[in-house]
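#struct-pred

JT: dropping the chains for the assembly here, can someone run the whole complex?
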Amino acid sequence: MSIEAINEQLLRAIGVGVALVDLEKMTLGFRNDTFAEWFGPQDNASQLVDLFPALDITALHEGLKSTGQHTTEASFKLRRRTMTVAMEFNRTVDTGGPIAVLVCQNITRIKELESMIDSYSVMVERNTREIKREKDQVEKLLLDMMPRSAYEEYKSFGIVAPRVFEPVSVLALDFVGFDPLIAKHEPGVIVSELNDIYSALDRIGEQFGCQRIRTHGDSYISVSGVPDPEPEHVTAVANAAVRFLRYLKQRNESHPIKWQPRIGIATGNVIGSVVGVQRYIYDVFGPAVSRALALRQAAQPASILGEASISSLLDETFETTNCPDINGVATVCVSEQSAAAPATG
Amino acid sequence: MEQSLFDKYGGFSAISRIVMSLYDRLLDDDTVGPFFDDVDMPRLMDHQTKFISSLLGGPASFSDDHIQRAHRHMVISDAHFDQLKALVSETLADFNIEPDDIGRVLQAFEQRRPLLVRVENVD
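RK: done, full complex below.
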């Protein structure tokens, strides 16, 4: 077998499609087996544009003229499979005139893989967005349950170490006659009212540096000085307390249910920690909380009862009047400067 | 949480080979292949990637309603469904998926039969 014959056999057998293009007639002449498998058997009259309708003939001519080369891609159907080939035309001269050697590399698999990766990427991106949204929701929920610093600690270490915060001020609010109200109204109405009121109290408290720690029924506990120290913690809770009363007074004027708040405020230390293993909740407890609850219990409707020791810490915007001792502790009734202050009950 | 088959068998890098192999089988098959005659490659590949991912618990899941809507325009018979099931089974076996796992995948696939098959038989 001659070298030429071996060459031709090799050329025919390789997995690359090879054909010769007559550049004057723009027809295809010789084609190897792979090319024929894709585009049909040799037919010297077959036009290049018939086989590759999307081929840019002008660009082909320009490329061959300037660099002697032109590359592009073409897709076609082989049975029901979409095939893609990378085409390379190389200009040369045959005895009959100018021709180009067309070499077609099968890049179908690459294109299929690209499509698969695209599809997978879209799925993963969508999942990532969903996971992030869920994570944000969980974070928001946890931040509703505990201060950010406690949340960060929880996220990093899985626990929140109990800490003593001192000095802090505690505000305890509840409503006089809550049980009869529950009996009188639909549960949904009561819950909706409390949602509305607590949301407003949260906003007011935040304005003055107070953070709601928990609610339990009609019991609303807020503190100043936890977790970040607040030098003006007494003023903060006193400011929040008088505005809570003002807000509820105004609200009662336009709502059918008349809420009668009472507030106790106390200063001292508290322990802050996440309590519970599964149904965990950030809580503060300690002497200041207990005293605030006792003072609230003794307060008249629409009044604020505090420990007498806070008088010296409040500025002239507040008025304090002495009230009877509670559990042996001297107390004062706190009000805004202009308002009259009712006594303890 | 129980590990999905998708993770058990190596995640996307391994599953992509299964997708490609099933894609080849589908196109070569004269029973189910004709469904894809006029579907362009990216769409078909997208379909196969999601199909395998959802069967193996990967990052794709489709509601029954979605599956039904996506196949509404096709007239699928039990014979078509059986053939696709056989192709899935062969493909998974080729990639050394454990028989018990193949059984579970086919069972989940079988549960979707009423969503897809709309005619008793087609010649």
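JT: nice. Chain B has a mean pLDDT of 87. Strands of chain B lie at 76-77, 117-119.
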